[in-house]
Amino acid sequence: MKIGILGAGQLARMIALAGYPLGLDFIFLDPSAEACANKLGEHLHGDYNDPRLLAELAERADVVTYEFENVPAEVAEFLAAHTRVYPPAQALAIAQDRLVEKNFLNTLAIPTPAYAAIDTFEQLVQAMSTIGYPAVLKSRTQGYDGKGQSILKSADNLPAAWKLLEGVPAIVEVFVPFNREVSIIAARNVSGDIVFYPLSENTHRNGILRIAESKADDPMQQQAEVYISRLMTALDYVGVLALELFAVDNGLIANEFAPRVHNSGHWTIEGSETSQFENHLRAILDLPLGSTATVTKTAMVNFIGGLPTTKQVLTIPGAHLHLYDKVPRKGRKVAHATVRAENTEQLAIAIEKLGILAEKTHDS
């Protein structure tokens, strides 16, 4: 069985690593000659819109998936006419546009921050009279890891924020005074079976995820499951899906969803009975989904822009290092470490130690 993957970055790499014990082979389409998953399968080197490469991928792959949501939606639609593509192209198209995404979530009665579409500076000024400050101005498309975003604290910030986006279509959202940032990851197979992972409690800086800690028995778990199940059913979704949420005093507010395996679920590699990567493959192949039960207390720490030594990481009890085979550069995710511990106190100590290593080496 050959799995085609659009993109050959670290997420594709981890999908392939999860697939090899299942006897799966992989073929990647990626425009970068140095893409880090290349060593784990065949590499079709070229643009995502290259008709010749798309035809080859459709012919040779039994099923196609993708590792990130900035692959052109029309590419997934083209491939779906020739082979099986999961998650569905509709999910990709919705997730690529923040305005479309927010509108869609609201039709499903999944609450979001108050927002307004912005196409001109005059619209931005007018919208702020109802949205209020503080707020966040975001590009509607191509934004991830904090890119294309500006915090608006007062009217004085508006000209510079608008100039930063260079007039691209945008959306402005009220800033949510959240207690925690959390995400839920779920997998749904072709037959419609769904499994849910425990909530991840996430720590970001400059829009980039730093730490994700599994929260088994979180009081918000049931509400998060209701929301993500509603989303998956509406999309007739197949694969792993992540829904990022703000936890506030009276419940959960949706930020955005990612139609793919997700950074906040990396702890599942060592921390769950079945990782998100294996369950993604099981889902798109319509195999029975694996248990999402946590093995013990677990978390993940990202290394961004630089790397500690392997010895420094593995000296920490319970730590497991995952290198992405990527050249370090500013703002780039180059590795992560998962860590397991017997109790909350031990886990907190390990997270702190890994966080110190990450701070010493990061350049973002």
What would your notes on this structure say?
With 364 residues, the protein is of the alpha+beta class. The chain has 3 domains: 2-85, Rossmann fold; 114-174, 2-Layer Sandwich (Dna Ligase, domain 1), CATH 3.30.1490.20; 180-361, 2-Layer Sandwich (D-amino Acid Aminotransferase, Chain A, domain 1). It has helices at residues 10-19, 51-60, 73-80, 89-95, 98-107, 121-131, 158-164, 221-235, 268-271, 276-284, 310-314, 344-361; strands at residues 2-6, 25-30, 42-45, 63-66, 84-85, 115-118, 135-139, 149-152, 170-174, 180-188, 194-196, 199-205, 208-215, 239-248, 251-258, 297-304, 319-323, 333-341. The strands form 3 sheets. Strands 10, 11, 12, 13, 14, 15, 16, 17 and 18 form a 9-stranded antiparallel beta sheet that branches. A 5-stranded parallel beta sheet has the order 3-2-1-4-5, sandwiched between helices. The radius of gyration is 20 Å and the shape is globular. 45% of the residues are buried.
Which terms would index this structure?
364 residues, alpha+beta, Rossmann fold, Dna Ligase, domain 1, D-amino Acid Aminotransferase, Chain A, domain 1, 3 domains, nine-stranded antiparallel β-sheet, five-stranded parallel β-sheet, 12 helices, 31% helix, 29% strand, globular
Per CATH, the architecture of the largest domain is 2-Layer Sandwich
**Total separate domains:** 3
What is the molecular shape?
globular
Number of distinct beta strands: 18
Q: SSE string, helix = H, strand = E?
A: EHEEHEHEHHEHEEHEEEEEHEEHHEHEEH
Could you say what the CATH topology of the largest domain is called?
D-amino Acid Aminotransferase, Chain A, domain 1
Oligomer: single chain
Mean pLDDT: 95
Percentage of residues in DSSP E strands: 25-35%
**CATH class categorisation of the largest domain:** Alpha Beta
Radius of gyration over all CA atoms, rounded = 20 Å
Q: Specify the structural class.
A: alpha+beta
- By CATH's scheme, which homologous superfamily of the largest domain applies? ATP-grasp fold, B domain
Low confidence ranges: none
State the end-to-end distance.
39 Å
* SS field, number of helical segments: 12
Largest sheet: 9 strands, antiparallel
Helical fraction: 25-40%
